[in-house]
Every structure is written in structure tokens, then in C-alpha cells.
């Protein structure tokens, strides 16, 4: 008797899990590709229709929804934040993992503590007031700046660097006369690239998904994609095909990332969890 | 374990060949560079983390009104909140949805992880597909679920009607709305938690199971007596994560009401995070919102402590 071969019940459960995971996305495609009459029909349609292109064009062309602007804005915000978080985290991670300096332990504990505070809810009022006094509300700067750092990123890269870059390697580079920044660039960065990929994907998805802060600090005429969906939803509350076409558009970048890096996402999550 | 090159004999001799200027510069590099490397994080944290936290405390002690007058009120906001029915409504909603969502989610995730831990074909694609919900945008998911839960043509009511269940108005009624929102949360996070549990399960040595099997322990017994107790550290991580996520719930219930933070006509699914946004950015009572934010933090601490104690007991008696 082998504990590691699945029973029939287990196989069925896994199959069900796969179906349930995919169904709402499939459903999104079904409604996004149909007419509005189909979307409110009982019994509902279960197969995609032929109107997907038409509906998407209608969403993109709708002046009120600003959907294209929302997509562009989300792309800008997510990319800038991702680059910043990855750079800041690899720098700090290298220092915490491979360099000795006074206060290292205390500072690392500080980083861990900052991870436990729900900053988004806790700091929302003063951050908003700060953005008002800088006259940045309604601009992308207001969305980008609070997210340029990420305690989880520093923690992750510290763990990753510790494992991927042996001390001997750093010392050898130093003996050869390399300065710290040069070691970071030539020795550390190539070795921690998989960790950077996981952190980057993670950050990009997080920013693409961010909803509460943009809802507060942006206006519907300069939205991120999530805000654009919400105003589609509020403006055309009965036109499901339009809403679903927009919603489907909004997840394309995430699905693309997932298709390209799904293996790394699974691996990264599993590695991170074991080390945490 | 020291990283300074001056300890190694090889390093020293190399270094002696250099002109004194470079030696000084490299000593500065070794001493100061680490601080330079970690400083971007701490500088930004001071600006966008520490500053807001401190000011949230400061704001919470003042009364702001719509006209823009500001008045010191001490703990007035806090006492007012504790007597505010709407705030308690939000607390009850948040905690209820958290419990309704988390309990089945943990059980399902454990079960799913146990299944994913077996040997079967297409293992990677199946593991990836249970993560698919996580990479989908929260708002998109909430939009889809809102349609699935529509009263007259929603798929959920249609399927329930096969079993003779009457049409439920998922958005208008209190407990149905909690269930609807809880399923959105569960759909998104169960696979993720299963993958984390799976990672924990893979660190459990296989010979433990082999020994148990030789002793005649059934699979079910092995799960309860080996897997669960060995999984406790992972469980603490997952449960704490879910607690923070669950108690700060915002996107799903807000989208469930077309992006409105009232949480339904009677506030039946308004969460504390939505209450904060409503007070701060619809009523412009910054002090009240800030005080509510601190009470939310307190709620999270209490929730985390309860869960921590609870998880520590799981499988603790052997």
C-alpha cells in the first residue's frame, strides 16, 4: 500500500478543483462573446458566442469608460513599481544576506515588523492628505509612490540571496578588488535572477490588482484598469456583455504572465513557504 | 563569518599592492556601502510607512468636519466609534464573512494539498490551474461572481432551483450576501493556500508514513497523526495571512455593490475597510476614519492572537 498514489476519490476531487478554478474565467468568456439578451437568459448559455470582437471594440471605443487609458495607466504603474521593488529588494537583500554591518539584525527585524502592519488601511488618511497637499491626487504619481517599497520583497530577496550566493563567492570577488556595487551587479544579480522573477511577477500582479488606493486617490477620468471596470459597471449596470468584455480585457496581461511563468510561480510560492 | 577581506591572507597581500588612496576608498566601501544598500528601503518606508502610521495616530485625536474646521477631541473619536452602530455593523460583517470564508477554505485547502501531494500525471499543470484564480484580477472575479449571483438570471439561483430552492436575493439579504462574498474570497485563495500547504507537506519525511503504514495506520489516521501535526508551522503562516487578508476585505464587497463603499442598501455587507473609506473620503471625517483604522489594527491583532492559539492546539495532543 502506497500512500503516494491517489485514490479514485482524490482524482475526482482534483478534477473538480481544476474545473471550479477555471469555470468563472470560462464564464467571463461566454458572456463577453454574446449579446446582452443572452446574458440575462434563463437557462443561461454555456458556449461562447460570436460577438467577442465586437464587444471589445465597443468597450475600447466608449468615451466615458476610458478603458484604454485605464489599461495604459495600469501598465505604467505596475511596471514602474515592479522595477523599483525589485531593485530596492535585491540591493537590501544582498546587504542583509552577504555583508556584515552594525545593526544588521535589528534592521532585518524592522523589515519583518513592517510586513505585519496593514499599511494600506492604516495609512490611508495621511497618505491621502499628503497627496492633496502635493497636489498629486488624480495623477499616477499618487498611485506609484507609496508602493515603491515592499517589506516582503526585501525579506524574500534576503532569503533567496542567502541561499543562492555563497559568502565565499562574495569574498573571492572582493579579493579580486571588486567594490560592493560591482559585486552586486556582476556576482549577485546573475545568481538571484530566479528570485527576482518571482518577486517581479508577484509585484506586477499585486499592482495590476490594486483597487482601494486608486479608488480613493484617482478620478474616473484618469483611471487604472480596475477603476475603469468599476465605472463600466456603474454606468452600464445592465449591459453585461460590455462589462464582461472589459473585465476579460483587464486580465489578459495577468493570464499572459501566468502562461509564461506559471511554473516559476508555483515553484516560487512553494520555496517561499518552506523558508518562511 | 566575516565578509571583510582583511582577514583572509590572500586578500591582504593583494591589497598591499594598491596605492593608499584606493585602500582608503575600499575601506569606506566595505564600511559604508551596506548602509547605502539598505537605505532606499528605509528612507521610502519612513516617508510612506512610518509617516502615515504616526499621522494616523495624530489625526485620530482630532475632529474634522465637512466645513474644514479642526478641533482637538482626544479620545473622542474612539469613544464615539465604540458607540456607533454602523461601526459595529461593519465589525460584525467583517468578522462573519471572515469566519464563513476561512473555515471551509482551510479544510478545502488541506484536502486539496493532500491530493496534490500524491503521484499522478499532469502534476504541474494541475498545480498551476488551482493557482489560476490567484492571478486573475480581484475586481474581475467579483464582477463575474456578481453576475453569477444575480437574482433573476444568475447561474447560482438557476442551479439551486433544480433542488427546489427558491430564488435568493444574494445582494439584498444579509447572510446570503456574506455567503456570496465568502465564495468569491474562497474561489480566489483556496488554491493558493493549498499550494502553501503542499510545500509544507513536502518537507515531511516519507519514512514517517512508511513506518506508520507498517504499523497498520490507515491513510486517514496518517493524515491526522502525521501530516497535520507536522504542518503546524505552515498552518500558522497561512492562518495569519488569511486573518490579515480577511479582516481588511475591501475589493469583493465593494465591487458587489458597483464600486460603492456603503456595502448594500442597509450596509449589510459593509466591511471595516469600507467603513474607513466611507468616513474618510465620502464624509471627509479624517479623524473618525483614522481612529477606525487603529481599531481595525486592534481587531487584526486580536484575530491573529486567537488564531495563533487555536492553531497551536491543532494536533498538539498526541
Automatic annotation (TrEMBL), chain A:
UniProt xrefs under CDD domains: TM_PBP2 (cd06261)
Keywords assigned by UniProt, alphabetized: Cell membrane, Membrane, Transmembrane, Transmembrane helix, Transport
ABC transmembrane type-1 domain span: 71-261
Transmembrane annotation, as ranges: 75-99, 106-124, 144-162, 183-208, 240-261
Predominant location category: membrane
SUPFAM superfamilies in UniProt: MetI-like
Record has Transcription regulation as a keyword: no
Membrane topology: Multi-pass membrane protein
Compartment list: Cell membrane
Family designation: Belongs to the binding-protein-dependent transport system permease family.
Name of the protein in question: Carbohydrate ABC transporter permease
Organism for this UniProt entry: Nonomuraea helvata
UniProtKB/TrEMBL annotation, chain B:
Membrane topology value: Multi-pass membrane protein
Basic residues bias (residue ranges): 11-20
Disordered, as annotated region: 1-20
PANTHER family the UniProt entry points to: ABC TRANSPORTER PERMEASE PROTEIN (PTHR30193), INNER MEMBRANE ABC TRANSPORTER PERMEASE PROTEIN YCJO (PTHR30193:SF37)
Keyword Transmembrane helix applies: yes
Protein location: Cell membrane
Pfam family, one: BPD_transp_1
Keywords, sorted A to Z: Cell membrane, Membrane, Transmembrane, Transmembrane helix, Transport
TM helices/strands, residue ranges: 32-59, 95-116, 128-150, 230-250, 288-311
Occurrences of domain ABC transmembrane type-1 (ranges): 91-307
Highest taxon listed in the record's lineage: Bacteria
Entry protein name: Carbohydrate ABC transporter permease
PROSITE patterns: ABC_TM1
Organism lineage string: Bacteria, Bacillati, Actinomycetota, Actinomycetes, Streptosporangiales
Family stated for the protein in its record: Belongs to the binding-protein-dependent transport system permease family.
Chief location of this protein within or outside the cell: membrane
